[in-house]
Amino acid sequence: MSRRAALALTLCTVLLAGCFTGKRPYFSDSETFPPGSTSGDPAIDAVLARLDNPTAGDATAAYTVLTKYGNTTNPALVALSPGKRSITVGNTRYIQTETTAVTCTEDRSIPCVDGFDPQRISDTLITVDFYAADTAKRLRRDAAAKLGPAIGHDDTIADQQATCVDVPVVGGTAVYCALASGLLARLDDGDVAVTLTLFGESVDASAFTPPA
Q1: pTM score of the predicted model
Q2: At what angle do helices 42-51 and 133-145 cross, to 10 degrees?
């Protein structure tokens, strides 16, 4: 059981007899953990300040994504240019421009569809916004549930300087790191381990063209 599931079960047991599974008792991340909100812990807030303000590009970041349940690994690639983004996780690519948004498969086994289909990558336990906004949500949840002081530190990841924080939570320590550009450098919690492997301040324009 992941530490998030364990915490949800504990809270349900305390707050609502007969509750066996389900989300933590809050209405939504946007209501309880709004972007830009601070935790009051300087080490956590230093990382949040970066994740809340990711670069619009040009930038390219490559990652490995380890989903701990099932021990599966997928590559991921984030390509950003002003007004455009391309997010690839495994065989799924999400492309957004000023006028369109589509979900495609890299091997063309499934035709592209309009809009973003989050279910395509739901088994990885990350979302299309994993590189900044979604990790900020995770960090805010852990900040609210931390069991002790968070520890801030700097690290070098994929030859890039990153600001990091270790957050003690149920089941262990969650690690969050962000680049000066605001992009994720490392996320290691009870569910996933996402690690930056390459970063550059340029982008291949073909990333924003759906696979033929």
Answers
A1: 0.83
A2: 160
